[in-house]
Q: What sequence folds into this?
């Protein structure tokens, strides 16, 4: 089983997530840009995610809403910078519950034979914002999402 690396250097407003998957980068990219697949893996357990809108182009906006069993909603929004492609995805991310605290995500998909290394570089506006994210179960959420992404990819991959 692959392990997710989460790198957060002290004093740097950045978190880097690295995970290798047994899937081609085209499939991994598809899991990121197909809203029907995205809702199957992104976000924490116990929440149901819906895609409010998803305009996959330079300047396009997106918004996701996660709901719990009690009807509480948690939404995130952002803007794509450059057109998402196999070379990568660059987007802003903002939690609607903390307006004005925007981070920039860059996701890349590097081929390694039959495998793909996913790297997500999240740059926060400040070390304080980064630290607050880390203290809000960031690592647990990332680990759960990466495990669920691995399961989605396994269902989509042709049997070997």
A:
């Amino acid at each position: 089983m692959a392990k997710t690396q989460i790198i957060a250097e002290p004093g740097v407003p950045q978190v880097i997530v690295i995970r290798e998957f047994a899937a081609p980068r085209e499939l991994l990219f598809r899991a990121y840009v197909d809203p029907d697949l995205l809702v199957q893996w992104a976000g924490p357990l116990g929440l149901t995610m819906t895609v409010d809108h998803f305009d996959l182009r330079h300047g396009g906006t997106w918004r996701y809403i996660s709901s719990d069993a009690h009807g509480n909603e948690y939404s995130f929004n952002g803007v794509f910078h450059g057109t998402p492609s196999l070379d990568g995805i660059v987007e802003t991310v903002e939690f609607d519950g903390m307006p004005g605290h925007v981070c920039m995500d860059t996701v890349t998909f590097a081929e390694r034979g039959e495998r793909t290394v996913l790297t997500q570089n999240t740059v926060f506006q400040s070390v304080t914002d980064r630290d607050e994210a880390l203290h809000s179960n960031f690592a647990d959420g990332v680990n759960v999402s990466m495990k669920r992404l691995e399961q989605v990819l396994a269902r989509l991959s042709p049997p070997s």
Summary: The domain at 5-45+88-156 is CATH 3.30.530.20 (Alpha-D-Glucose-1,6-Bisphosphate; Chain A, domain 4). DSSP finds four helices and eight strands in the chain.
